[in-house]
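Reposting from the mailing list since nobody answered there.

I have sequence plus structure tokens for a pair of proteins and want to know whether others read the tokens the same way I do. The first protein:
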Amino acid sequence: MINRELIRIKIVQLTYAYYQNGNRNMDNAEKELMFSLSKAYDLYNWLLDLIVAITKEERKHVDVATARAERGDGSIPSSKFAFNKLAVQLEENKMLNSFLEVQKNNWEDNIEFVRKLHSQIVSSEAYQEYMASGEDSYEEDRELWRKLYKLFIMNNEDLDAFLEEKSLYWNDDKEVVDTFVLKTIKRFEAANKSDQELLPEYKDEEDRDFARKLFRSSILNSDQYQRYMSEASRNWDFSRLAYMDIVLMQIAIAELCTFPGIPASVTINEYVNLAKRYSTFRSGGYVNGMLDNIARFLNEEGIITKPMEPRPHRR
């Protein structure tokens, strides 16, 4: 689940923090990086468990309404949402339950937030249409939760604030993690029952090594990389650069130099996007131009060997 986009985001954040922090200890900084990445995986599991928590809250409401109906006060309620097949499968999932067994936090300790979210869901048009539908299929149940997740869990400012209170590491994680929760919902199959595989923490050991090597290279070779910046961009005005831009380009150069299998265009695009996200309004275009210059310089000097697209001809 922890992909290279998330790794790059964390390395940018922690490299910036490394230089802002007076106590520059490389080993401690690397431990902090790996811990922050593990917290992103915690968030993935916690958001999957939120689906289960909302479902359990629905069951409480159904139980109360059923008890009233048995006393002659109203009709027996539908338990369709309370036993939504996707949610039940998640509730029984072995990987999720294995994760939850060792966690201190759980949604039961934050039941007021769960109740608020449940109330919003049952008042929604999507819920009403689902409950009124005559269909009773796994596919409908899975599609409902894909829709509800997009409507009520993604881009939910109250949830974002709530999660940030739980962990400072989750401040920028949720947007990326949401995409993996949706991918997981889409991958669920009824036949897999409780053995349905969730996304692993890392796709493979190579991605874990990518995180360590990129971070260490960015810090330990920083002087060399900043010389490359100066030599490759003599005609650029460095005073126009925000400090975050320097950090971003330093990490981009580390990636260009350390990972020969990653195309230069991929690296440049990734850090231009990060500049747009974390730096100034003008940083995207400025970082793009400078990294293009730097990558060409590194090729010319034989420091890297990566194809570059021809520069556009000026008329």
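The second protein, same order (residues first, tokens after):
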Amino acid sequence: MDYTVKPVLFDYSTNLKIFEELTAEFSFLKPSVIGRTALGRGIFALSLGNEKNSVILAGGFHGSEWLTSLALYLFAQRLSESISKKTLMCGVDLERAFSQLGVTIIPCVNPDGTEIAVHGISGARGLKEFVSSIGCEDYRKWNANALGVDINHNFNAGWEKLREMEREAGIDGPSPTRYAGAYAESEAETKALTRLCRLKKFRSCMALHSQGEEIFWQYGENTPRSSEMMAKILADSCSYKLVNNAGLYSHGGFKDWFIEEFASPGFTMEIGKGENPLPKEELYEIYAKIEEALLLFCLM
């Protein structure tokens, strides 16, 4: 496959460059900025197809997991090229499929956290002193936003219980990872994503994280009956394992909130295997394994 999106370190300048290049090349891709972070960085979205019957794919929730952002940009490129060239992708006529269906892709929900993970303290701009005061031995492992809040703990799904679990684990304030914030939906990044979902009424959601080659699909009593079968189809297509929420990952996540709020299917896919940040050189190998699953998610 000939990929325009390259396996490079993914910082904000790369984020903006890919976003602008894809929207310039493919006029049917609808660009938008769904919100801005505490440091003013844009949270970019790409939409194509029928927005009234659409799903949402989001990545880059955690700073150290920036390979998920590259994977989603790569998926956007592949979809767009297939439609533009009128070729099949995974045996599917996408021009026809996306005349009825749609997808919105948010490659990087947490651009401030990504910038800190890639460039260290300099990525925190005016919050350098604050970020430094939190303490982090290796900024490559930074997962939170620039205010020390873990975005995937900040959604309003069992949030109070999650904060109690965090306190028991000794996490009671801004941290490089796993601090849920002062209250649910306290962060600009969380607000941007929930606002978009409430406005667009997506029929299902998928969050990309790394790593483990796993798919999560359950949350509480509002999990739709169809979710398990959908999850099995996704897992079979990429040979990932289906797993259940556990421990500090049991509440507060995007897919948890989406299921709770809309009683619609929500999934988390943990891409790749190893230690975060995953090596950029593994991008194409990881992406090739999940492309069909990402497409199936859009079509189901």
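Reply #1 (J.P.):
I read it the same way you do. The chain is about 40% helix and 15% strand.
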